[in-house]
Amino acid sequence: MRRKGDLPTKACVGCGRPFAWRRKWARHWDAVRYCSQRCKRQARAGA
Questions:
Q1: What is the domain range of residue 32?
Q2: Which residue among 6, 10, 18, 44 sits deepest, i.e. has the most Cβ atoms within 10 Å of its Cβ?
Q3: pLDDT tens for residues 1-47?
Q4: What PANTHER family does the record tag this protein with (predicted)?
């Protein structure tokens, strides 16, 4: 078991805030760019 502080983190492309690895992203962690659906929607609306 890992502690939350030991998990890998990334910066969100939409808002710039750091977010941590989640189990549901385990298979495609390299492809994850946004911290939430809200950031993803806002990025698409702004483009």
A1: 4-46
A2: 10
A3: 678 788 999 999 999 999 999 999 999 999 999 999 999 999 888 76
A4: DUF2256 DOMAIN-CONTAINING PROTEIN, GSL3115 PROTEIN
